[in-house]
Amino acid sequence: MLSTMQDVPLTVTRILKHGMTIHGRSQVTTWTGEEEPQRRTFADVGERATRLANALRDELGVDGDQRVATLMWNNAEHVEAYLAIPSMGAVLHPLNLRLPPEQLVWIVNHAADRVVIANGSLLPLLAPLLPHLKTVEHVVVSGPGDRSLLDGCAPRVHEYEELIADRPTTYAWPELDERSAAAMCYTSGTTGDPKGVVYSHRSIYLHSMQVNMAESMGLNDKDTTLVVVPQFHVMAWGLPHATFMTGINMLMPDRFLQPAPLAEMIEREKPTHAAAVPTIWQGLLAEVTANPRDLSSMASVTIGGAACPPALMEAYDKLGVRLCHAWGMTETSPLGTMAHPPAGLTPEEEWPYRVTQGRFPAGVEARLIGPGGEVLPWDGESAGELEVRGPWIAGAYYGGAAGEDFRPDDKFSEDGWLKTGDIGVISTDGFLTLTDRAKDVIKSGGEWISSVELENALMAHPDVAEAAVVAVPDDRWSERPLATVVLKEGATADYEELRAFLAGKIAKWQLPERWAMIPAVPKTSVGKFDKKVIRKQYADGELDVTKF
Ligand code: AMP
Question: How far is the CA of 347 from the centre of ligand 1 (A)?
Answer without folding.
Answer: 26
